[in-house]
Structures are given as structure tokens and as C-alpha cells.
Amino acid sequence: MSSSPRTRARARSSGLAALTAAGVLVAGAVAFSTSLSTPLRSSSTSSTAPAGSSNDVIANLFEWNWPSVATECTTVLGPKGYGAVQVAPPQDSIRLAGATHAWWDVYQPVGYDLNSRMGSEAQFASMVSACHAAGVKVYVDAVLNHTAGSNQTSTDSYGGDSFNPATYTYGSIGYTSSNFHFDPPCPNSDLSIKDWNNATQVQECQLLSLSDLYTEQDSVRGKLAGYLNKLEGYGVDGFRMDSAKHIAQADMAAILAQTNNTNAGVRPYVYQEVMPGGSGALAPAAFEGNGNVLGFDYAYGIRSAFLGSISGLQNFGQGFEPSASDAVMVTNHDLERNGTALSYKDGATYTLATEFELAYGWGSTPQVYSGFDYSTNDQSPPADANGFVTGTVCETGVWECLDREQGVANLVGFHNVTRGLDVGNWWSDGNNAIAFSRGSAGWISVNNEGSAVSSSYQTGLPAGTYCDVVHGEFAGGSCSGPTVVVSASGTATVTTASKDAVAIDVDAVVGSSGPPPTSASSSPSSPSSSVAETFTVTGAPSGAPIYLVGSLSALGSWAPGSAIPLTQNGSQWSATVTLPASTAFQYKYIAKDAGGNVTWEPDPNHSAATGTSAASLADTWHGATATVSVAFNVNATTWYGQNVYVVGSIPALGSWNTASAVALSSAGYPVWSGAVALPPNTAFEYKYLKKDPDGTIEWESGANRTSSTGASGSVTLNDSWK
After folding, report:
1. pTM, to two decimals
2. Whole-angstrom Cα distance, residue 288 to residue 558?
3. What pLDDT, on a 0 to 100 scale, did the predictor assign at position 52?
4. Is 171 contained in some domain?
5. Residue 156 domain-assigned?
């Protein structure tokens, strides 16, 4: 198959510098210690992706105004399968005199109302609702470390809040000079950071003259948590914590402990700006207890490869932060300006690197960055005379809408269908062209060379004719662009143009619309042995019997007419099916009435693999809203700065991953309390742990605690630390 070079018209839609203000850090791994009494479990880690999420790719729409974000969620992000959108800081911020209105104004907060240069509070609320209606979560860039710069003289803001940075007074918030760090605790009389390897200076002094909040104070913590809770009240699902390296980990933990669950009933997803550099308490790994960390390591590494040779990317990610903690990116607003990462100015290489990011699968929540063109590092986004950002117009020389680029947008779907599957069938010409598969669900060729590359590849995919999703749209069994023919042996002969890619996946097989609404890989060759697998689902809709269907022939090969009927027992539906042993598969539950009308469970497919003996799978119907509120109360003595968490065997309790443990409140000290929404009719194990400010973890002793939820209502667990 031959593919011509793609057109890079940025208007096409398918369906530090500025260290002077943004809070970019100089920073680097603390060894987390545990007691010998760790939880009893078969799996030691789990993803820290947003709880309850399906799709996970983040579109970072840097400084887009709220109506433009809402439109993008509705017309592009939702239809293309993006999981979330990251939006600019929404609080009121300083507006400097003159007409420059630098982009970094929004990183100098002066009030916590939501009237900003991106729009009004009502427009913000409307944007969140529109994105949620499109199936897209909203993550806010949250600036908690500081307010406006103490070196600023302006008392003007975009939202009209009252403040004076010279006197450290912020009437709209209630901050006075007593709420900021001075000397002491900052050891430098000019309040600057002189030693970037000294945790006290980095976290108690001013970052580039930005007034550093006294986050050890309960009153400051309460105001910051109140701001985050206000955002969550409008439906915000998570936070990118700006300048997180400059906030002591214990302070951040205390702030997060006061935040609510999101409107979806889960903890907000947190990813933190912690630039590499430094060690111990300043290493990125030391911040993992409060959430994921931004993938600066990934951005630096992918730039080096795509400006050199990509042939060594087979084990890309080794030596970085753990994949589950690494919120990876190709670039962001700081890195594109200081030249340490790729940017739109690198043209096709930048797009190709983003496509690789989506296809390869390393990291917790991969990001696609869409910003604006600039000729100077402080340049404002397109705005009116008063600095209010105008609507996004995706055309060259104005906005760079990479999230819409056909290859990038369609590789979000490729990423979703191949998520969690291993990289295989690696091929390289030893220079600058590579190819690889993701399980038996997707395959991609990436050519970073100056001329086309042709070869015969083992794709690992079932035989068929596939749509090249980089260059074509797939709908109704047809492809608008070139196709790739995979033989019975899984091979395909492909020509990949210079600085281009070819990608195929099992959701885009020509002549087949695939299992609605997402597909799965074809079932592998059946082993000679078989095992009994018991399926149980709760939260299914009432009114029609529930069936099971999936990618294996024993599960009906996605044909509703061959689906397995389940037996109802209260709120549960279950069945035991004989499946081939040691086999990966995907499945869904469907409701099918007497007339044959089928209602598919919402995306994504469930994924599992049989072992060599009988096993059980307990699921909740995707989209089910029924939960049981479980109140955890534990009497535990701590010292100042030490906090208590609960972690357990199910995803809502972190799946035993300490980075995803649920923070408890000390409001009733010595009783630490918190409520967590858990799935109904679910047995679970749990334990309490303590986290020190340096990241040290202490597990309580003894066996795991056990409990279960009923069909509805609430559960209260009153425990004492053991």
C-alpha cells in the first residue's frame, strides 16, 4: 500500500522562556519505605488514571477561551474519543498596564472567583457542562503556590478583584501579608531561591518574585481547598497543579484532604508540575504520593529521539518515572518556548512524535497540546484590546490545533482500542523508521526519514482490509482514504511517506462496522485446554434480560444473536462460561428484550484473560450511577505533618496503589474520617496507612481488613489503628 504525504492544513477538522511568571521549576527519587506489614494482594500496582475513566488522552487547549473549549469538546474531542480537556487557570488574575497582556498573566492569581480573561463564571460553568455532555472530563490548571508577583505595581485585574501585590493584600480572597512566606522561613533576605537543590528555599522562598503563600497555615489551606471545591462544584474532574515542586508535599496533601469527591463520586485526578533536577524531597518521585507528575522526562526524551534517530525507541520510557505515574507530553507552554521540547515550529516532526506518543502507550494520561503561534516568548494569545482571549480560529499563524489534525485525532481512537496491550512485532531499519503492533488490536509504521520507506511487516493483526486511520476516516465499514491489506499470516506490505505514519486497528476493518460501539481484537488461536470463567455484573438497566457477548467464539464473537444469557439474582446477573485457557479477550454486557432490541453497555469494552484454572470476573455496568457511600473512621495518633489514608483492593480504594490512596480528614482528630463511593454488592479489603512529609509510608499492622457493600444505602466503618 502506498501513501502520499499528508496535507497539514491546521484548519482541517475531523468531525522558559517566560520563566518570569509561569512558575517553572528547577528540580529530581525518594525511596518510599513501608513497614513489613504490607497488604496481602496478588497485584502490587494499578494505574493512577482518573477513577472511573475509560478514555484517558488529555487535550491541552492552552489559553483557549471557554466558548471555544466548549465547541471543541462537542465537535472534536468527544467524537474522537479524547478522555479529558485541560483548561487554563480560571481564577481572576493580574492585568498589567499596557497592551501586551502576556500569556503568563493568568499564572498570577488575585482572586478565586471565576471571572477571567478566558470568560465569565457562567461561561466556565457552561463549558464544563458542554464537555461532560460530550463525554469529556475537565481538568483545571490550578495555581496554588503563589499569588501575583510582589514586584508588580498593577492593581488591575481581568475580573475586577481587589488586591495590592506590593503590600501582599488580596481583599477578595482575604489574604494579608501574614499569609505569605518571608525571612524566615525563607533563609534569604531578598526572598529569592539561590540554591535550587535546597528544599527549604525551593518551597519557602519566592519563585521569580511571585508572592509565596504560607501553605502550612490552616487558613491558607482552607482557602485553597475552597477554591478547588468551588471548581468541583461546577463539575471539574481534576487538577494540573502548577508549580507543585514549590509546595511542600505535606501541605499539598493537607489541601487535597479537604477537597471533595468530584460530582462523579470519585477523587479528583491530580497531576503535578515537578520539573526534573534535584534529589530527595525535590525529586519527582517524592511527589507521587499526592498524584501523578508531569512527564518532562518523556518530553525531553522524545525530542532527542525525533531530532536524532527513533530506531532505539523500542524500550522508550525505561528510566523515566513509572508509567502509571508519568503524565506524559510531547510539549507544553513552557517547554515549547524554552526550546527543550518539540513544538509546532518543528512541523511534521512534531506531529509525528505526537502520533508515536498516542500509539506507543507509555504513561498515565498522554497529552495532545494545542496552543497559539508566537514570535516573542511573552506574547499574548489572540485577544481584544483589554486582553480578553478571543475565539479560537484554527488556521496557520494564529492557533495551532494539533488535537484536530486527522492523524493525531484518529490515533486517539487507536490509543483507546490498544490501551494496556503490549508492544510487539518491533521492526526498525536501523535508521529512522520503525513499526510495531499493540497486541493483536493495532499496528503502526512511523517514518522519520527524508524519503519513503517500503517493507513487508508482521502486523500481529487478523487477516482483513484495514483503513489507514492516519490518512482516512472510517465510518459504516468504509474508509475515505488508503487501506492496508493484512494476509492470513498477519503480514502487510506498506509504503510510508517521509515524515509520516500509517496506522491500522481492529476498529477500522473495511466491510465491517465492528461490534458497537467499540471493537476488540479477534480471538487468538484456541489453546487445547479450557477453563470455567464466571461473569457477574451489577448496575445493569432493568426492564430486559442481560446477556454477555465478546471477542471469543465461546462468547458469541460479538454477535448479539449468539450472546450468553445471564441469570438474575437480586441486582446481580451472572453466568459461567467455558473459555480457552491462557487467552486474552474482550467483552461487554447487553440488554436484549423479547423483540430482539439490543442495548449495548457503554464504552469501553471490558478486557480480561483466562488463566489455567477457573476464575471469576465481577463487573459494574459501565455508566451505572448506583453506588454505596462507605464512611471510613479510624482512631490514629499522628505527629504534625503526618497524614492518614485508606487504600484497598478495588479501584475506588486505589487497588493497593499507595499513590492512589484516599486521604482522610483530621477534622475530628484523633479520628481520621472520609467517605468513599463504592460499587454496590461488592466485597473488598482495606488498610490504613500514614504518610510522612518526606514520602515515607507506614502501614498499619496485621491482616487486611474486610468489608462489603449492600445493594444501596451507606456503610460506616469505625476502626482503630493497629
Report:
1. 0.68
2. 40
3. 35
4. no
5. no
Cα 317 to Cα 297: distance, rounded to the nearest angstrom:
9
CB 660 within 8 A of CB 654: yes
Q: Are 212 and 204 within 8 A, CB to CB?
A: yes
Omega before 670 cis (within 30°)?
yes
Residue 2 has pLDDT above 90, yes or no: no
- Helices assigned H by DSSP within 111-260: 121-133, 199-204, 218-233, 249-257
CB 576 within 8 A of CB 534: yes
Question: What local confidence, expressed as pLDDT, does residue 134 receive?
Answer: 92
- Round the CA-based radius of gyration of the chain to a whole number and report it: 26
Q: Is residue 404, in this structure, part of any structural domain at all?
A: yes
* Local structure of 79: helix, strand or coil: helix
Domain residue limits at 634: 628-720
In b/e form, how buried is each residue of 213-228, taking b as 16+ CB within 10 angstroms?
Answer: bbbbeeebbebbbebb
In a domain, 174, yes or no: no
**Which range (462-466, 686-690, 692-696, 699-703) has the least confidence?**
692-696
Measured distance CA(539)–CA(541) in Å, rounded: 7
> Pick the residue with more confidence: 595 or 447?
447
CA 311 to chain centre: 27
Percent of the chain with pLDDT over 90: 67
Name the residues annotated as catalytic.
242, 273
